[in-house]
Design a protein that fits this description.
By secondary structure, this protein is mostly helical. About 75% of the residues lie in helices and about 0% in strands.
Length: about 500
């Protein structure tokens, strides 16, 4: 019965997406829903797009393994990003009436800067969208009691999200999000109520977590801990600002006021509601510590869904997994569309011989082709996150055989999302901020910022050695703050280069 209801929900989502296609008459409809969305829909889209698999599965898993301080990137950094974007960036960007964020870099600087930053933005979505698709695979795997392998689940999830995003674009995202947000909020609150009956209320859970040291937040007064803490906050808090999905929600608003406050209120709603899945997962460890320990030893991300299957009545299971699927699909659809639009408008179109003379119909077709291509790339990346030992293992899992994946902590859903924003923090944030708020910011400054950031970040990130005799390099690699150092280098380069050769010279 549970699987039947889940299948019905997926079919309904696809149906809504196909219906949304009737509202798409041109490329602008596909990308920004004709700039016609009201406050409630914008708030819902901002909230539901960011309230994804990492919030329901990854963040609670991290909380169980560490404490509140382990969540500095998400939800603390993520919420800050949305609120900061709404209050500081939404108004000036909305007034420009651009199709993509990449268009800003072209108009403010140059085509080379546009292409470089747009590629960086698109690449950053690989980890984010893959995290959602991986979570869908995990959900189907848990739902079926292991009959559906992770590989099969990933393939099914990617296909569903692709189908309802492909035809309707931003209209699909908007219409499905309204339904999905309702299911998310009502479903998770209902499950929280049912679970509180087993924990004797909210306070025993809070007290238990406090006694276990789970509310420890601030780092110890050591440079290593403080710098790691700050870098973790900035990675998501600042690195996710120059993202097409946030910009699209701002740009789809029907007024400047909606653009500002829809984004801001969506960020506030995200911060407070992120506490619900944390409460649910920790309650599960209290109610059945043996199950939590057994499942958590394999993957803490599975604790909550496994508990629901084991301890909740069938109607509660339907509610929970309906909410979980809503959470994942609402994020996956928006984050699949955003990089596809960016690549189409700011990279591929620039290199096509007929790019400038392309008709609206041709451009719409190009975007849909890129959506399909990016979905395929994301699926491959999600397969890689399973860390099977050989290609034959993937094939066996696809055919339904249970294959043990080695996995590692770097491919957890939470860390896949966190790592996604390193490239945009290094390459995209400084040129965006300087371009909007500093008149002297120049093309030379933007190019220098991008190059300096990459030259500092990439060697440390991929070739740095924690055992190096160079104590500074060893510290940066060991604390995983190479992207933070790259961001500082990019900031300095922008200022120095723009002062040497200001805009207009």
């Amino acid at each position: 019965m549970l699987i039947s209801f889940v299948a019905l929900y997926l079919i309904i989502s696809i149906g809504i997406g196909i219906y949304a296609a009737t509202k798409v008459h041109n490329a602008k409809d596909y990308v920004t829903a004709g700039r016609s969305l009201p406050m409630g829909v914008v708030i819902a889209m901002v909230f539901a797009t960011w309230f994804g698999a990492e919030t329901v599965l990854g963040v609670p898993g991290t909380f169980i393994e560490s404490n509140l301080g382990g969540l500095i990137s998400d939800p603390f950094g993520a919420s800050f990003c949305l609120i900061f974007f709404g209050l500081i960036f939404a108004r000036p960007l909305y007034r420009k009436n651009l199709l993509t964020l990449g268009d800003f870099y072209r108009d403010r600087y140059s085509k080379p800067v546009e292409i470089a930053v747009s590629i960086a933005i698109a690449l950053s979505y690989l980890g984010w969208v893959s995290a959602q698709i991986t979570a869908l695979g995990l959900t189907f795997n848990v739902l079926s009691g292991g009959d559906i392998t992770m590989v099969q689940g990933i393939l099914i999830g990617a296909s569903v999200v692709l189908l309802y995003t492909l035809f309707g674009g931003m209209w699909s995202v908007a219409l499905t999000t309204v339904v999905q947000m309702t299911v998310i909020v009502v479903g998770l609150l209902w499950i929280a109520f049912l679970m509180s009956e087993q924990t004797q209320g909210l306070m025993p859970v809070i007290q238990h977590a406090a006694d276990a040291g789970k509310f420890e937040f601030w780092p110890t007064l050591e440079w290593a801990a403080i710098i790691t803490f700050v870098a973790g906050f900035l990675t998501l808090g600042f690195g996710s600002i120059p993202q097409q999905d946030v910009f699209q929600r701002v740009n789809s608003s029907n007024s400047e006021r909606v653009a500002v406050w829809g984004t801001t209120l969506g960020g506030i709603a995200y911060f407070f509601f992120a506490a619900v899945p944390i409460y649910l997962a920790y309650s599960a460890t209290m109610i059945d510590p043996q199950l939590a320990a057994q499942v958590g030893a394999e993957d803490t991300q599975k604790v909550l869904p496994t508990f629901v299957l084991s301890h909740m009545p069938i109607y509660a299971q339907i509610i929970f997994f309906g909410a979980l699927l809503s959470v994942i699909m609402s994020t996956a659809s928006g984050t699949l569309l955003a990089p596809s639009v960016t690549l189409s408008e700011n990279v591929i179109k620039e290199f096509l011989p007929n790019g400038k003379s392309m008709t609206d119909k041709q451009f719409l077709l190009l975007m849909r082709i890129v959506v399909v291509s990016f979905a395929g790339l994301v699926t491959i990346f999600a397969f890689y996150s399973l860390q099977y030992d050989s290609l034959s293992d993937y094939w066996r899992a696809l055919l339904g055989e249970q294959v043990l994946a080695s996995g590692n902590e770097e491919t957890s859903i939470h860390l896949m999302v966190l790592n996604a924003y390193k490239v945009t923090l290094v390459m995209a944030l400084v040129p965006l901020f300087a371009g909007l708020f500093w008149k002297k910011a120049s093309n030379f400054g933007a190019a220098s910022s991008i190059i300096a950031g990459l030259l500092v970040w990439l060697p440390l990130e991929f070739f740095g050695d924690a055992e190096s005799s160079n104590s500074m390099m060893a510290f940066v690699v060991e604390q995983d703050i190479a992207h933070f150092v790259g961001f500082i280098a990019a900031s300095i380069a922008m200022v120095v280069a723009s002062l040497i050769k200001p805009a207009g010279q």
